[in-house]
Specification:
Elements: H1 8-19, H2 25-32, H3 36-48, E1 68-76, H4 82-90, E2 95-100, E3 107-113, H5 116-127, E4 132-140, H6 150-158
Antiparallel strand pairs: 1-3, 1-4, 2-3
Helix pairs in contact: 2-3
């Protein structure tokens, strides 16, 4: 895969958009002392190259009553059932992240719930998925790092 080369203006644009994907191009242009057309062209080029893929909205789940976070390691009966299990996990809304991994587990999930009773029901649903052998659950006491910018800044330092 070809690496797309970004310059300092691109970096600054990404920095602003990561903070708030809804920032108007005119506001970005004023902050960076370039034209809004320049911002539009650069963002479009980064979208065309696949550097930017869509835009996201960050939900504060705690404010909505879903402050309980559990990480669930899933052991599969057979690794050949991975795709089917992932598809079944997609049907459980409380599973907000699922990674196929190499290591102790076959799949590792992040689950958001209202509390322990709610989390227990979600974990039972995961256990009932065909192909799941067993699970191990870890309760998160605090989400200490959830930073979208640090890696991007490190990448730019490498260039």
């Amino acid at each position: 895969m070809k690496k797309y080369m970004l310059d300092e203006i691109d970096h600054q644009i990404l920095d602003i958009l990561i903070e708030n994907a809804r920032t108007p191009f005119t506001d970005i242009a004023k902050k960076l002392l370039v034209s809004a057309g320049t911002i539009h062209v650069r963002v479009k080029k980064m979208e065309d190259e696949g550097v930017i893929q869509g835009s996201t909205l960050t939900i504060n789940y705690e404010k909505m009553g879903y402050s309980f976070i559990a990480h669930v390691g899933i052991y599969l009966e057979k690794t050949s059932t991975t795709k089917q299990v992932i598809e079944a996990l997609r049907e459980i809304p409380n599973v907000t992240v699922a990674d196929v991994i190499a290591g102790k587990y076959n799949i590792f999930c992040k689950v958001r719930a209202k509390g322990t009773v709610d989390a227990k029901e979600v974990i039972y649903k995961i256990d009932e998925i065909a192909g799941v052998s067993r699970t191990e659950t870890m309760i998160a006491l605090e989400e200490s790092i959830n930073d979208k910018k640090r890696l991007m800044h490190a990448i730019f330092k490498e260039l």
